Amino acid sequence: MRGALAIAAAAMLLAGCASGGGAGPSTASAVEPSTGCPDVLVQADPPHHGFGTQDAATSVPELGVPEAAWVCEYVAEDTGDPDPDGGALYEWRRTDAALAEVPDDALVELGDLLAMVDVPPADRACTDDLGPRLLLVAVTDDRQVAMTIDEYGCREIRLTEDPWESPPGSPSDPDLPAGVLMADGVDAAALVRELSGLGGGR
Predict the structure, then answer these.
(1) Which residues, if any, are the signal sequence (predicted)?
(2) What pLDDT does residue 202 have?
């Protein structure tokens, strides 16, 4: 029954939230229409210039194949306020790109990607640039998990159970690892764009 409620809620959401933001849910069954993705991602504390925790995760999440999933795109904007450590403080604001639903026939491949999420290697290669950040929200039969996927730098991934309340990389759910993760050997952002039809990218 919980799975049916979650999927029904996700179906209602995806039917009406292509451009909506606002306050959101804490569990899959609490999803309300027009709240697919927040307008601005929650800042970490400390914010690390708006990019979130820089500590590597020490464990790997068990995510499985989602029963519904959707993606939104964000870009970094200068808040005009100083970072506590000095320098600029950015926030991640949703772009005009419409919410993109991952179709049913791509969910297994998305699950394969989620299974590749791992702790970052010590010798990871990073580029010196700044680009978009994707928010992927995945609903299973008993929970909702969201992850940000950086489309720049080290291609870092950060998890949260609730992108409206918990900063990416600092989840309240003890079953989700805090810190930075990666999908080593695959361009996770490009694949998520391809599976969802979000388009754009770098």
Answers:
(1) 1-20
(2) 61
Per-residue model confidence as pLDDT tens digits over 55-102:
999 999 888 899 999 999 999 999 999 999 889 999 999 999 999 999
Q: Tell whether the model's pLDDT for residue 151 goes beyond 80.
A: yes
Burial class (CB in 10 A: 0-12, 13-18, 19+), 58: exposed
Non-local (6+) Cβ contacts of 113 within 8 A are 183, 186, 188, 191, 192, 195
**Residue 56 has which token pair?**
């590597």
At 98, phi and psi to the nearest 5? -65, 150
Q: Which amino acid is at 99?
A: L
> What is the C-alpha separation between 200 and 198, in angstroms, rounded?
7
- Asked if residue 20 has pLDDT above 60, the reply is no
What amino acid occupies position 140?
Answer: T
Tell me how many degrees the CA angle 81-87-91 measures, rounded to the nearest 5: 50
Whether 71 contacts 189, CB under 8 Å: no
Tokens of 36: 């697919």
Closest among 116, 120, 147 to 54, alpha carbons compared: 120
DSSP conformational letter for 24: -
Bridge partners of 138, per DSSP, are: 69, 145
- For the chain, the first-to-last Cα distance in angstroms comes to 41
From 27-36, 114-123, 154-163, the region with the lowest mean pLDDT: 27-36
